[in-house]
């Protein structure tokens, strides 16, 4: 059996065997991802997307979709593309650390938009999300996850289309052969280089392209289009420099091991912020530190910087200096902080390699923080894996509060609370289009 066939079978099986806890968690991922899309809608990149859709003639036509990402109605591809880009724009979306992919940004927008267009219920979306996460995470795991950073491949761009194709195939009720064809069509265009200097829009647009391409691949498979079924065997092994590893054990769906993000910055920096928080809780005067050194696994240094003057918000989210500054100012969870200028008085922040942390990859993304305090003392703290991962999960209520904070909903706002409750009970929602339309109305009231 080819890798693509194995992925198709695995995605369908994960959705079919998911228990109530996994299905509830999938609904929480939908809520969190929609919050990230809303946060992204005020990102400078959102204005560029809006201008692009206007300049290229994405006009209102019957049957098109409303989206929290853009004003007006848009085609399926534009809707998926824009929501996927903005879901990841603030680095606030969930990820699977061991696979080094952000399944939320590529799977959830596709699942919601296709379900809206097809008139599918929430239960079908839950199935699609579980299936899509399973496929993109499994592909990332089998090809090395974070190790791909070392050869300049970004795993989400490489495998993201597989996740959205699997989710869409589930919603279109494709059979095993058609689903395998959808994955083959998606795999034919796999790729995506990790930026070496400026992230800019290019890095985040890769997420949207992957999600939209995967959605189209499944629709093409539905009308009979086919592709090679062995693209992830010989061709991918040659391109990526490594063959696919054997299938992972599969004791439970991969969605259960995905991590919600507590901070809107590059994931390798999360463990460092948790380390600073731990030191502060211990009563150490970290807030007046003279210098902060962050040591990370070698592979994770590939996409973070110590830039004090980043060119824009996307670069600020990858900057250890900005992440530390946000924590010092009590704004570590505020997307707006990473869109402004660096405040004065931020101590020296440096990055370095912690070889002893390499052995914990890909499962645990650790950090060692060394702080020179104002009184001359030097203190250290090591954290294995940032908050929100399987080892240190964020409570469900913390994820829900994150959504409320992003959309500006007071906990006593009955309309928002009703919508949140409905989203978290996604299995019982009769029409996903109504849920999306209500969200858009609440955001624009």
Written description of the protein model:
This protein is of the alpha+beta class. It has 2 domains: 3-257, 2-methylcitrate dehydratase PrpD (Orthogonal Bundle), CATH 1.10.4100; 267-384, 2-methylcitrate dehydratase PrpD (60s Ribosomal Protein L30, Chain: A), CATH 3.30.1330. Helices cover 50% and strands 8% of the residues. It has 17 helices and 6 strands. It has helices at 3-17, 20-40, 44-55, 76-89, 103-118, 122-142, 155-171, 176-187, 200-222, 234-240, 270-281, 313-316, 320-328, 355-358, 396-407, 414-424, 432-443, and strands at residues 65-67, 70-74, 291-296, 348-353, 366-372, 378-384. The protein has a 4-stranded mixed sheet with strand order 4-3-5-6. A two-stranded antiparallel sheet has the order 1-2.
Sequence-ordered SSE layout with sheet pairings:
Layout (H helix, E strand, L loop, with lengths): L2 H15 L2 H21 L3 H12 L9 E3 L2 E5 L1 H14 L13 H16 L3 H21 L12 H17 L4 H12 L12 H23 L11 H7 L29 H12 L9 E6 L16 H4 L3 H9 L19 E6 L1 H4 L7 E7 L5 E7 L11 H12 L6 H11 L7 H12 L2
Parallel strand pairs: 3-4
Antiparallel strand pairs: 1-2, 3-5, 5-6
Quick summary:
By secondary structure, the chain is of the alpha+beta class. 50% of the residues lie in helices and 8% in strands.
The name CATH uses for the topology of the largest domain is 2-methylcitrate dehydratase PrpD
Topology pattern, helix = H, strand = E: HHHEEHHHHHHHHEHHEHEEHHH
Oligomeric state of the chains present here: single chain
**Terminal Cα span:** 52 Å
* Number of individual domains: 2
Count of runs of 4 or more consecutive helical residues = 17
The main sheet orders its strands as: 4-3-5-6
Q: What proportion of the residues form beta strands (DSSP E)?
A: 5-15%
- Shape assignment: globular
